[in-house]
Amino acid sequence: MGACQNSYIFLANIGKFANWNVDNLPASKISIEYGTLALQSGTGTIVSDGRGDQGGLNSNLHVDHHNLVVVPIDAATSKFWIISANDGGVGWSQNGGETWVQQSNGMITTQFYGVDKKVGANEYIGGMQDNGTWQSPVGQNASANTNYISRLGGDGFEVIWHPTKTNQIIGSVYNNNIYLSRDGGKTWATADKNINEDGPFITRIGHSPAKPDVLFAVGKNGVWRSTTFGYHPFTGWTKIAIGPGWTIGEDVTNQHNVRVSLANPDIIWAGAGMYKDPNLSLFVSTNGGDAFNAASVYDEVEMGYISGLATHPTNPNEAFALFSFHGAPKILRTMDLGKTWKDISGFGTGTVSTNGFPDVGVNSLLVMPFDTSWIWVGTEIGLFESRDNGTTWAYANNGLPAVSIWQMKTVDNEVIVATHGRGIWTTTIPGSTLGVNNLQPEKIGLKVFPVPSSDVINIGYSDSYEGKVKVTLINMTGKEMLKKEYDKSSESFFETIDVNNIPSGNYSLIINWKGNRVMKKVQVIRN
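-> C-alpha cells emitted (527 positions)
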C-alpha cells in the first residue's frame, strides 16, 4: 500500500434536545468531492476614490458603480477604454483607468426626490438621489440648459425655499440631517438640533407657505417640529410623541411622511400606513401639531404602508393617502379628516382599475388650485390625470416624459415637478411655459407700490409693446386671487388694482404680454 496522501475524520454530533437511537438512524450518504483548482494571482490597483479615503485618485468619479464595460481599442498595444454606469451618470476612461471623466451635464437623467422654487423668480433647488442638493444660479432664469451649483453632498432629499425670506433655504440629507442657508444658498449650517439622526433614510419635510417658519419632520416616536425655520442657536426641534400605530415595532421607515394642509396650516397629516394587525395608522392634527389623533383604517381591502400623502388646496378636511400595492387601491381620499376613506383609483375590492388608473406605484398627487376637479398623480411610469375629480383617469400626455415623479408642488403660477430620472420640470398655471420669456423686473423698469399694500397696488413699467396685458395675483399655494386684462396703447404702462377684498398675506404679481412674463413679490396687510 502506498503512502496516505489525505486522511478524513468524521465525528458524529447529536443535536440539542435530540435522543440517540442506534436502531433508528436515518438513511444517509457521505461523499467527498476532490480535485484541483487553477488559481490566478494578480495585483489590484485602485483607479478611483470618490470618498477620498484611499489616496484620492480620480475622486471625480461617483462611488456607486452599476456596470463597467471594457472597450478594446488596439490589441497590439493592449489599449482599451472603460465606461462606468454609476449613480452620477456615465464616466469613462480613455487610458485604461488611469484618469476618468464623469459626465455631469447634458444627459438630463438626474433623479430628484424633492424640489422647490424661489418665490418671484425662476430659480430652483432640488435634492438628488446619491448626488446631493443642487441650486440654479442666483439671479438667472433657469432653463433646460442651466448648469446647477452643488450645495450639499450625500443623498439629497426634500427642500424648502422660504416664501417670504427668500435668502433662507432648507436642504436635507438622509436620516433627518437637515441644513439651513441664510444667504441664498452660499453657505450652510446644520439645522436639526435635538433630532440626532432620528429619521428615515428618505428625509421628509412638511411645510406650509401660510406659516412659513414652521417645519415638520418624522422620527421613530412621532413628529418633530421647528417654529424658526430650522434656526436654533439656543433651543432645538420639539418632538410631538405619537403612540400606538405610529410604527410596527420601533423602526421609522421610508414610508413615514408628514404633510401640512394647503388649505389650513394648522392641519398636519403624518404616518406610515394603514393596517389593523399589527396596528399601523395615519394621524392628523388640527391644532398645528400640538397633538395627533389616529385616522380610521380603510377596511374594504387590506392595505399596508403608504407611498405618499397629499392635501387639498381649498378644502381643509380633504386629504389623500397614496399606495403602491399590486392589484389594490392606489389613492384613498378622505373628505372628513380621516373618519372615512374612499378609493378613487377604481380598484375597489378587485385587482384591475375600472376607471383607467394604472396598476403601478404612486408617489405624489396635486390638486390644481385653479380647478379642483383637475388632479395630477405622479406614478412610477409618468403623469396621470383626472379632469372630473377622480371619477376617471388617463395618461396626461402633455409633454412631460414618462418617468417616475416623486414630488409636485405649486409656487407662484407654476407647477414644479421633481422627476426621478429626467430632472426638474415646470409648467404655468394653467398652460405650458413653452415659448414664454421670463424677464427680470429690472429689465422693464417695473415699479410696484406701495409695499406692503392695504387697499391698492400701483403697477408701472415701460416697453415698446402695445396690445393686451394680463395682470394676475397668485397666493403662495398657486391659487389665483385676482386677474385683470388691460389694453396697452403706449410705451408706458400704469394701472392701479384694488386689493380691498384680498386677505392679508404674501403674493406673486404676474404680468403677461405677448410671450413675456414678469413676476414680483407683493404683500397685502389688512388694517
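Confidence is low (pLDDT under 50) at residues 431-435.
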